[in-house]
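Example 4.3 (complexes with small molecules)
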Amino acid sequence: MTPAPSAVQTPKPFKPRIFSGIQPSGGLTLGNYLGALKRFVEKQDEGIETIYCLVDMHAITVWQDPEKLRQQTREGAAAFIAAGIDPARSILFNQSQVSAHAELGWIFNCVARLGWMNRMTQFKDKTAGKNAEAASLGLYAYPSLMAADILTYHATMVPVGDDQKQHLELCRDIAIKFNNDYGVDFFPVVEPLIEGAATRVMSLRDGTKKMSKSDPSDQSRINLTDSADQIAAKIRKAKTDPEPLPDTAEALKDRPEAKNLVNIYSALSGQTVAAVLVEFAGAQFGTFKPRLADLAVAKLGPITDAMNRLMTDPAEIDRTLGKGAARAEALARPILNKTKDIVGMIRSGSE
Ligand code: TYM
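Answer. The structure with tryptophanyl-5'AMP bound is encoded below.
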């Protein structure tokens, strides 16, 4: 490849900056909370620059009823704020308001290779048992837009749950190929932050399946909008095995449902799995489940209450998202402009 003109500046070293997103394609679950949202708040509180996004353009890669999409985007924003995201300290917005995501996404569609996209397991999972030919082109290109979300801010770290690992590897590949193709050191190679006991919260009905907002069974998940009674009932009915809890994490290896409930307890309480097992070794689920339900209600109840309060003023949520979008745009635009210069696109205002 021909190297780009030497006028291109290298913004190294990259400033630590966090970006992450959640799809407003349904109500948020305990999985989203423990695997993502709770950790987003921790990162914000550590004082790192944090940018968080409701990725509505990703959501429409599968059909979304327009009124529901608006409602779920507001509800998602309310969940962020209720969980502790401060829109004055973090940037909080919805993706479609900042067109740099779509513009850089197109450029990355021309960097990413078909072979890379063909290896994406999430596309395969989402089309499994269905007619893949009828899936949207957007669903196929999804990970390339995700790379654009991150790289249009030169974000360096991305907190996510375990299911996003492959997408972040693709984001790294896109950054490396872009840099190589154009002979620049322009995009950072991001670091995935997949940490803690709850990087993969499993279904309450099947410990081998991920808890998901798109699972047809509402009993499989705890929603952030569930009442205390619903939470307690779902935990009471959660699938388990007949054995008491063991005294080591190792002994949970072949007990997916038991392991999942212990992991959830650990993540909600902030205790290590080992500490949870010291407390509950030998206990039956009849003892453990009510304790877990009490803990979940104590932690999630205030978030649900705050979400409900925030949702009474949708116009205020829209204003918050608008202000966040303006701040995001100010960061993204110069990076997108520079990308266009590197690629060789003429734009007014460029030399
Ligand atoms: P989404 O909307 O499916 O999930 C949002 C976040 O929640 C995490 N998560 C879980 N973590 C633990 N256990 C679970 N059962 C569970 N379910 C979901 C996900 O790992 C994710 O961190 N592609 C992304 C959205 C996205 C994005 C981005 C993320 C778009 N652009 C840029 C990071 C950076 C997604 O579908 O997330």
